[in-house]
Amino acid sequence: MNANPEGTTPQIIIDHVTRELDKYRIRRKQGYSSVHALLLSWEEGDATFGENVRDVALLFQESLNYLVLPYKIPSDDSQRRLNLYVAQFLSQYGGGDNLIVVYYAGHGAPSPSKLSDCQWAALGEGGPMLDWSSIQPQFLGADCDVVMFLDCCYAGQAARARTSHRVELLASTDKDQFTPIGGTKERPSFTNVLIREMKRMLKDFGAITLPMLEKSMATAKSGLVKQPFYVPLSSYDPKDVVTAIRLTRWEHIDNLRTHLDAAELDTERAFFELRFRLTHNTNLDLTTGLVDWVTKNSPTFIDDIEIVKGVLSDARAARNMATQLIQPVDFDGPSPTHISLPSPAQQRVFKLLEELNQAILMPTRKVMGDIEAVKAFHNIRQKANEVSEFIKSCLTSLDEESCEILRRQEFSCMKDLGDQISMRLTLLQNDTRLSQIRVNFENSKPSRERIRIGQIEACRPVLVEYFSYDARKPESYAKASKQVAKVSALLSHPKDPAFRTLPGIGFTHDTIHGPQFGLVYDLSHNRDNPHFCFLSDVIKKIKFMPLDVRCRLSLALCEAVMRLHSIGWFHKGIKSENVLIFSSNPLGQLGESPQDLECPYLIGFDCSRPEDAETWATEDFNTAANIYRHPDRWGNPSRFERHHDLYALGVLLIEIGYWKVLPSMLRGGVGAVKDRETVRESILEIAAPNGRLSHATGAYYASAAYSCLESAGWRRHQGWEYHDIIRSKIWAPLNASCSTRRLE
């Protein structure tokens, strides 16, 4: 590559493109921020079509994890009401990086005139009808990818419109032909074959494209009497599988792995090494096209793109950072500055550095084939990540001066580590200044609600979480104001999504009906999921929840607690009442979209504090609140320690795993509780090996919960050792439980 005369060096460009690739890596695997399937049929349509809709819904929900929204077209005023529903549907779910899937099962009719291109009918003869050609343009203007499956006569009539973004149609037959109802083994229906072939393609290839699906369904052995009809309603090549929409199982972005694992590297796949040369006048402003080329505009069959020099840059940055932990650092001072890391931790750093150096040197020692080279760079990335993760686990062992030394390092390739160091510094610093903000509420009437939705600035939605303090005590306001400023500063820090905290933007103070402070969270990123509820309410009102969803929810919350503890931030109020679930549907419909539960958010930070800070030893003899706490924290509590949070996490894991709130699991309920040890023994009995929790969730999950409850014995360990123990005894079993569920 050539040097840039304008000052943007090739390395800066490499780092920039590498960061953008890393951001997009998850999106490449997932493809879409969300996928919503709209299943259309008639209120008074044939029973066969209703069965087809149920079968397709099952496929989309179980095999593809899509959010399914069935809609029965009303017999009265059909045209206007469907038109209105589609407009509302697209307003809520269209745009951005979303995918919309439309399925229709019903009758179709030939166009009665040139004014109507595509007619839908409830019955074969007579009955309500509507003009789909006047509704379909809404999907063409949805500004997101759209896939349509139409199982009706004359379905190909819908292929006449065109759009600039990707909209693809697979019709049961051409525009001038009937579609046999089928439904028998000898003569299967379009929907029967569609479901069968989609399941087969997911099993064989892990993905579906409509050109491949049409080809598969058109073979003689499929059993279809009429050949399906595929056409993209866009400017793309009709048979181009490179640019075709790719349907894969949807997972929430926070649950996706960003890199290939060892098993995937061992599979027979094609790897290509691509080199390109930059022109003399390239600068960061002109690399937009390059970034688009290697991210969203790359072919859909490409599984991963990696810049080798970017991997090496990450590895060298991790190595330099780790070196600072074991060697004196001279920042033009009178004498070198030492980072205060315990001796056992330094020995661990030495070992990790040695493994990383060997990994970096490996590609230079011999000529490698494509697969060997890919594995070598995968090993470099893995070793660099191990170094980075260990540095994160050591942060609680570092004082303010040591963190400040690390903060001065270059973090261009390790932004999340830089963010955590900055958060650790915020925790350690005594002076945290953050101004109050004004929140406007639609309802100006005084409210004692704990949670309120309001707005700031130009209709920017926010959530305010209030907590009160005792104004009669002079020191109470000082403590509360210091607390809210510190927590607000931490919540407003950029951080990895795994922290599972809503982005904070400040705090507010209310003296009218309190007095109380309010933590203010930004909701602008949650516009697609306007409804929220507490996890405790979800558990009470949704009777059944799939075990795999419960396992992933627990893993996400465990990861969040690990992240908080890695910087020395104790929550002090972990329970289902302090977990928020956001959804596109109200609480009563959450069971239809269980993936919403895989993206929880922790709240209740009003009592949270740094590890070394003064404890608010507030008396609390409320049994209903105390049952979620460690016995040491009942009544007149002892100093809060790390294992108290883990105990509360264990109780939360039991509630999620058993899918019952704790009071309903205690004999006689909260009213029958006599003392703290009785409650602890009851909880331990539930989580014990071969106990009720093990029966409900499996041994791995129950083991993780039991380890949380028994974590008091770990208090003698250093912070970085604690992190390793939590990962091995709690996180790893939960992850294994999730993996087991995926295999099933």
How would you sum up this structure, described in words?
The chain is globular and about 80 Å long. It is α+β, with helices and mostly antiparallel strands and 744 residues long. Helix 2 links the parallel strand 1 (35-42) and strand 2 (67-73). The two termini are 49 Å apart. Helix 2 (47-63) runs parallel beside helix 5 (190-205) and helix 16 (547-566) runs antiparallel to helix 23. The strands form 6 sheets. The chain has a 6-stranded mixed beta sheet with strand order 2-1-3-7-8-10, sandwiched between helices. It is 41% helix and 13% strand. The protein has 5 domains: 10-24 and 255-294, no CATH class; 36-249, Rossmann fold (3-Layer(aba) Sandwich), CATH 3.40.50; 308-428, no CATH class; 430-527, 2-Layer Sandwich (Phosphorylase Kinase, domain 1); 535-743, Transferase(Phosphotransferase) domain 1 (Transferase(Phosphotransferase), domain 1).
